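Re: beginner question about structure tokens

> Can someone show what the tokenized structure looks like for a real chain? I only ever see the sequence side.

Sure, here's an example I had lying around. Input first:
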Amino acid sequence: MSKLLILAGLVLVVGLIAQSARAASPAAGQDYTVQLDDQLTRLADKFYGEPAAAPIIIDATNARATENDRYQPIAGPAEITPGQTLFIPALTSAQVLARLAPAGPTPQQQALLASLPVKGTPPELFNEVWLNSPPLKLADLHGKVVLLEFWTFGCYNCKNVIPSLREWHQNYADDGLVIIGVHTPEFGYERELDNVKEALVRLDVQYPVAIDNDWQTWQAYKAPFNQRYWPSKYFIDKAGNVRHIHIGEGDYARQEEIIKALLAENM
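And the corresponding structure tokens:
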């Protein structure tokens, strides 16, 4: 009888030690209570060694929140509060990398990409004055999908195109889309920087705009791509190649499909 009591006592002690260890250092595969200075990227780095794995914690916690009210849905990496319960799924490093790897284009996107042959390499941007952004270089944007548009704020057709560009900027910037408006003026009043600044506010242009008052960029694109019109859009893939050119208004649904396909393309 005494041996059984001793054995039971040992089991209880081991269990308490294990429970204490888990409480001191939460392991992957269990709940975690958010502390005062916690950020999801830091937690992802802590548990997985990869800050970019924060969406894994978000998805896992949100999935639990649909079934259990002890979990609160997370809308984004910044929206966690002290005391909130997160769920940290048990994943190996290989599993984390697999989840973070791009899924790749769908069969429909593969067919669309096959219809977009390389049209050439776009000339570099050397504009010195930029609005909404510091100066950008296309060479620094490899790995991103770039939509470069020649426009001017007095152009009626250009103004009609802006809502679609704004929507794409809002929806896909976090996925790797960079929209650049090259503002090449047609008339004298469009050369005035204050007028351009006012137009960006009035038209709600949120993406980077390069000021091309000397037509340097326009002329650079004229030889290889016959640049002649406002608006003209150049869709540049992650490797830095022009894959599609669209002139004028319209065909927005197909252009959005092209953007999504280029973003899904593995390069």
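Each token stands for a local structural state, so reading them left to right follows the chain. The first helix runs from residue 2 to 24.
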